Amino acid sequence: FFNLTCSDLYVETIDYDHTTSNNNKYLDYAVEIIHVGISCSMIFEYDWGLFDGSGTVDINAPENDVLINLTFKSPSGFQRTPPNEVEVAICLAYFEISEI
Question: Best label site of 6, 22, 50, 61, fewest CB within 10 Å?
Answer without folding.
Answer: 50
